Fold each of these.
Amino acid sequence: MKIDILFYPEKLKNAEDKAVVVLDVLRATTTIATALAAGAEKIYPVSSIKDAFSLKKKISGALLGGERGGIKVPGFDLGNSPLEYQGLKGRTIILSSTNGTKTLKKAVSAKTLIAGSIVNAKAVADYLLKLNLDVVFMPSGTDSQFSLEDFAGAGYIISLLAEEKKVELSDQAYVSFELARINPPEEILTRSFHGQRLINLGFARDVEYCAKLNLLDVVPVGRLQEGRLVIESSRLFR
Ligand code: 3SL
């Protein structure tokens, strides 16, 4: 299994035969995993607030979630704090966040598109082992820049893969693996630029939650449905 990781959400190339794992550990992909674990049926990642409101008109009962600058968008039902996403059985969520939902949309050319995070690292690793495809990790970054938490987040998943299978790591993937090997998630997330920004905005509990390794047994998988990306929990192979 060949494993590579991008530094930030640059253009994805030659992913048609690969599994692509998009990470926005703080907080969008953690929120997606949490929402699905709380029973949400479908999540539609959308890029703009305008698209979110117009999609809501087409899907009755859908909840709008997301943030700009970390703060809930006026008129939305939920922000982007995973702690808000509870008791969602059968609900549809339309999610728009600054970086994460845009990155997910950039990865639609993947053979299999997965939303990864630290809270579901083991579930994602087990799923990747069963898929047995080469893997590209795609960090969402922070405002198009490198982000420590996504790079290390991929490393926790790579460590789990490497325990079970012979993996061929690119140079970047090796750095991500080593970073995760020597640093616990709480330290990485608290130290990161975005972690500090969230703590200063009053979201310290979110940062703590997003660092909980292997908390959730859920794999969010994306597919195109009528030209639109939808994320659901995969029960395939599980
Ligand atoms: O950028 C994003 O997609 C967000 O997850 C950022 S925040 O953690 O909600 O501020």
Note: The pocket of (2R)-3-sulfolactic acid is lined by residues 24, 26-28, 67, 70, 80, 97-100, 140, 198 (CB under 6 Å).
Amino acid sequence: MYIDIAKEKFNNLQNKDVVTILSIESSCDDTSVAVVRNGRELLSNVISSQIDIHTKFGGVVPEVASRNHLLAISNIVDKAMLEAGLTLSDIDAVAVTYGAGLVGSLMVGVNYAKSLAFALNVPLIKVNHIKAHISANYLAHNDLKPPYLALVVSGGHTALINVKSYNKFEVVGTTHDDAIGEAYDKVAKVLGLGYPGGPIVDKLAKEGQNNIQFVKPNYNKKEANFSYSGLKTAVINYIHKLSQNGETPNVNDVCASFQTQAVDEVVTKTINTAKRLRAKKIVMAGGVACNSHLRERMREVAQQNNIELYYPSPILCTDNAGMVGAEAYYLLMSGEGLSDIDLTPNSLMNLKYTNK
Ligand code: KG4
Ligand code: ZN
């Protein structure tokens, strides 16, 4: 039976000095395959973005995304192996994101990973996308070790997670409604700026002034949950009101005001939580961790409070398979994540599933 051999190999790998994992990420609109050594060293990390395809629709079209993953995945695996300078016989385990994400997109990566693990007769390791975002930091910072407070800011999540060890953690804050990246994308859409909105708003905000008060912040020091729907709606109402009066907004000022207020919430709640938990390190992850204002503000506030701050390079902030390989390695080292060949995607997975 496949699983019996996989179990034995999985256990043996925990004592092997060099573990090479081929990892796959296909949860949204990026098809990515990486080869990762010992959770820290990227031998390759190939990302095929579908942004050009989805831009004309103003956002990701799930059915189009899964079809394009299917078209791309074989070539991306070949490219990742070529760039790593290895052959498939060098691969010790296959890892894959199995949630959260778009079900059709996840299905492509999961089915490819199952087939590959079965054909190579190596263990299959299932990975939670949100945890993988955090683990991207292990590729970027060789010295980084838990414990730390992680802030995940992406298109689908805004969360504060108390990471106690590589695989032991507690979610201390999450989002009540829209995730921060989602708010960026919606604001960009209503301003007609295109998709994805985050990088465009970030760029235009640099040319504008924070002179429109969309929300009046009043954060309780113990509040670690986030809410972006009020801010997003205030921006949308402001733009609609102007257009009803035949006026046009100053786009740069709207971007600067929205960004300042969005970042203020995330920075204030993160630092308050870090102080409350006596965290010595803050680790940022996810697409929005690329944001220039967030990085700058968090650096200032962390420094004032004597807290070390970590975040990955932009390419490791966005969806990539390298982070999946890093997370898979630490799951393996704690004897977790082994999956049988009947693995199915879990599109709505949240952090509660991560230790299963
Ligand atoms: O982590 P990610 O690639 O995918 C998800 O797991 O959601 O994050 C994508 C999100 C999008 O909402 C995008 O607009 C946002 O990250 N983003 C940014 C920036 N770069 C990407 N948001 C603000 N500023 C940026 N520079
Ligand atoms: Zn992501």
Note: The CA atoms of residues 144 and 353 lie 24 Å apart.
